[in-house]
Amino acid sequence: MPSSIMYYEDNYVVLAPSMTEQFMTASELENCLRGLLADIQDNLPLDLQKIPAIDDQVQRLLKTACELDCGDAGTWQWYAVRLEK
């Protein structure tokens, strides 16, 4: 039976157009996404347009996606990673 640690999503690798890959904690990624979403509120993806609060939009992205198109700011991607064996 696999260890429950395999299902924790505490760390992410983030691929952004303006930087090389960067490792972030879950809270750092949430803050990053919060800032990105604040900048594109007028041009949100369809599934996020129905969600009024940015914090709820962030949680939706973390649970259902791994990519956010930010228009002129490019496309951001994130993937959960395990840093310990």
TrEMBL record:
Entry coiled-coil feature ranges: none
Pfam families per UniProt: CRR7
InterPro entries xref list: CRR7, CRR7-like_sf
Domain of life assignment: Bacteria
PANTHER family with a match to the protein in the record: PROTEIN CHLORORESPIRATORY REDUCTION 7, CHLOROPLASTIC
Protein name: Chlororespiratory reduction protein 7
Organism: Tumidithrix elongata BACA0141
Source species taxonomy: Bacteria, Bacillati, Cyanobacteriota, Cyanophyceae, Pseudanabaenales
